[in-house]
């Protein structure tokens, strides 16, 4: 067998520098490139649906939605899903002309200009990190509950959170394909336990198909449904991160749009079905009963309709559901940071990938250290892991993502306004316009009902909301500074040139 050695550098084959970057090129190298073609539609969908954490949302938030909204609660998830499908319509059409893995900020840069793009890049970094880091508090609570339920032992929440932090880092470093396989298993298990519980409810005759009460105008427009809509939008958090995995997707022009639509459609239908089933089984017990079981309604349902073992399984899978969300958001944070570093906006070192796994290992390490500092700080301060670490840190992230979605709709609308590029007016003008209006309504509803998300007073809530808009203002203020002092990075912002070597 004849072996071929790589040719030595020539005048037409630029030498490679010691950092791995080819001379005269700003494209990726072995040191900065992600592993291409490892994710299909289903893999990307598993990642982003896992970020939403269906079991966590159902067990942790759905009982509150039922208490506030009554029979109409399931409809809120359908309405939120339809609004986000309008957003996804134009978002996926524009993905064909956005070469970068920067997702939101790349779209906004292309449609609304670099100042808006840079501000949205900062907002995305802060929002995704806030959502990821805050969830360590929820994991600590769920983990201690599971350990106590199964063994009777008492474990500090931060021990579980910090152990998970190490595992998330190691899995993130091992490559997105490895993480996707882990998330596929965890998502399947958490979905399965909810299906089992709902099947048990149906089998017992506690609910029957053909009961439309949840979707009548009376139910949909009942008092309290505005607050439930705010909760429903937050339940879809992370679905738009499909575009972040463009560089690692097979045939990204097809897989990314498909994964986006599949993710939104699945979450809307699944959430509505589960809430409808459990709501019909327990809604007639009255608001006092729901208020008493806000934290364990699904465990009660599992015990009553399936058995005590099912309730134990649900407690364990709630931990795995939260862990899956942490891993999915860790991957999203890393790829945002890597994209900005590859374009020169963040330190170039953050663009370096693992030599074996081709994962954004340096950005992953930086994100892990940031999480360690925040989680460790809350632990040392004796803060409540749920009310303070989870709710206070997560809430600005959720509002930030809604604002980014609205900005992305505006970017799509402006980009296609004069040239439809072969797409229908319905898809790239009408749908994004409706999505923009409805997302603005969702932002207003979420802010107006923020006390439901934070369980905090007016002063804390004002600070949390103010942080979101302060990040945007900071980005706009710093934009001319970046343009003046880092003109090359400013020119590359949102273009993907640092990632794929485009001229």
TrEMBL record:
Record's keyword terms, sorted: Cell membrane, Membrane, Transmembrane, Transmembrane helix
Source organism superkingdom: Bacteria
Organism: Quadrisphaera setariae
InterPro entries documented for this protein: AA/rel_permease1, APC_superfamily
Gene3D superfamilies per UniProt: Amino acid/polyamine transporter I
Membrane topology summary: Multi-pass membrane protein
GO MF annotation: an example: transmembrane transporter activity
Cellular component annotations (GO), alphabetically ordered: plasma membrane
One of the Pfam families matching this protein, by short name: AA_permease_2
Bias-annotated ranges (Low complexity): 1-25
Protein name from the UniProt record: APC family permease
Main location: membrane
Region described as Disordered: spans on this chain: 1-29
Places the protein is found: Cell membrane
Membrane spanning stretches: 44-68, 75-98, 157-176, 183-207, 219-239, 260-282, 302-329, 362-383, 389-416, 428-450, 462-483
């Amino acid at each position: 067998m004849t072996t071929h050695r790589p040719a030595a550098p020539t005048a037409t084959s630029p030498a490679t520098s010691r950092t791995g970057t080819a001379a005269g090129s700003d494209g990726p190298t072995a040191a900065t490139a992600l592993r291409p073609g490892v994710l299909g539609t289903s893999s990307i969908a598993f990642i982003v649906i896992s970020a939403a954490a269906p079991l966590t949302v159902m067990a942790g938030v759905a009982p509150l939605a039922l208490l506030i909204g009554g029979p109409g609660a399931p409809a809120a998830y359908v309405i939120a899903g339809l609004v986000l499908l309008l957003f996804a319509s134009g978002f996926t059409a524009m993905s064909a002309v956005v070469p970068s893995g920067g997702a939101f900020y790349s779209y906004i840069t292309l449609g609304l200009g670099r100042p808006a793009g840079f501000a949205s890049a900062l907002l995305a970094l802060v929002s995704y990190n806030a959502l990821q880091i805050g969830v360590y508090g929820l994991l600590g609570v769920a983990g201690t509950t599971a350990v106590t339920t199964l063994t009777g032992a008492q474990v500090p929440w931060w021990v579980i959170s910090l152990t998970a932090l190490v595992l998330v880092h190691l899995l993130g470093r091992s490559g997105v394909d490895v993480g996707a396989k882990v998330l596929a298993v965890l998502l399947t298990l958490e979905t399965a336990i909810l299906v089992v519980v709902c099947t048990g409810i149906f089998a017992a005759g506690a609910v029957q198909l053909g009961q439309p009460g949840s979707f009548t105008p009376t139910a949909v427009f009942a008092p309290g449904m505005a607050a439930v809509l705010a909760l429903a939008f937050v339940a879809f958090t992370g679905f738009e991160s499909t575009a972040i995995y463009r560089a690692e997707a097979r045939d990204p022009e097809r897989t990314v749009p498909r994964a986006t639509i599949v993710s939104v459609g699945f979450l809307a239908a699944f959430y509505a079905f589960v809430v409808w089933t459990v709501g019909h089984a327990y809604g007639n017990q009255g608001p006092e009963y729901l208020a008493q079981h806000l934290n364990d309604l699904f465990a009660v349902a599992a015990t009553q309709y399936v058995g005590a073992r099912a309730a134990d399984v649900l407690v364990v899978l709630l931990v795995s559901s939260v862990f899956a969300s942490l891993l999915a958001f860790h991957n999203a944070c890393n790829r945002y940071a890597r994209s900005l570093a590859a374009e020169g906006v963040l330190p170039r070192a953050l663009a370096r990938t693992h030599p074996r796994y081709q994962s954004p290992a340096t950005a992953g390490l930086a994100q892990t250290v940031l999480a360690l500092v925040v989680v460790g700080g809350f632990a040392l301060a004796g803060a409540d892991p749920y009310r303070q670490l989870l709710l206070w840190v997560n809430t600005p992230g959720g509002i930030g993502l809604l604002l980014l979605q609205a900005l992305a709709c505006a970017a799509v609308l402006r980009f296609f306004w004069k040239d439809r590029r072969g797409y229908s007016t319905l898809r790239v003008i009408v749908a994004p316009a409706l999505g923009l209006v409805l997302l603005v309504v969702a932002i207003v509803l979420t802010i107006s009902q923020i006390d439901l998300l934070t369980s905090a007073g007016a002063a804390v809530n004002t600070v949390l909301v103010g942080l979101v808009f302060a990040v945007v203002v900071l980005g706009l203020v710093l934009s001319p500074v970046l343009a003046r002092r880092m003109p090359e990075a400013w020119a590359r912002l949102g273009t993907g040139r640092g990632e794929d070597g485009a001229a």
